[in-house]
Amino acid sequence: SRDEAKKTMAEATALREKEAEAYAKNKADLETNIAAIAKAVAALEKGAAGAFLQTPSAAAVRTWAMERADLPDESRQELLSFLSGGQGESYAPASGEITGIL
Predict the structure, then answer these.
(1) Which pLDDT belongs to residue 7?
(2) Residue 5 has what pLDDT?
(3) Does the model's pTM come out above 0.90?
(4) Which of 7, 15, 28, 52 is the S-S candidate for 43 at Cβ 3.0 to 4.6 Å?
């Protein structure tokens, strides 16, 4: 009937709006992570690791590394160690390991 069709359309519209909202949030999170990783790579390649570790971008990369399921544990631990200052202020991008992980 016409009333059932209207109800079904309203339910479908509500579902699409909910999915669109979830997509927008996920997209914003991913864009933030991509920007933070780009800043991290640029800072590391310039040898400014110590200064980078004090930025909000470093915190975003740390959060990304902890939440990313497909990052191998060894790489995750190495990256988190670096982000916690475990490699010291004198990090030099000679091997490219951290930039390779990112």
Answers:
(1) 96
(2) 95
(3) no
(4) 52
Write out the two tokens for 57: 């971008």
Cα–Cα separations (whole angstroms), residue 4 to 9, 10, 16, 31:
9, 10, 18, 40
User: Does residue 72 come out as left (phi exceeding 0), alpha (psi in the -120 to 50 range) or beta?
Assistant: beta
| DSSP string of 49-76, one letter each residue | HHHHTTSHHHHHHHHHHHH-TTS-HHHH
Q: Of the candidates 45, 53, 41, which has an alpha carbon nearest to the alpha carbon of residue 87?
A: 53
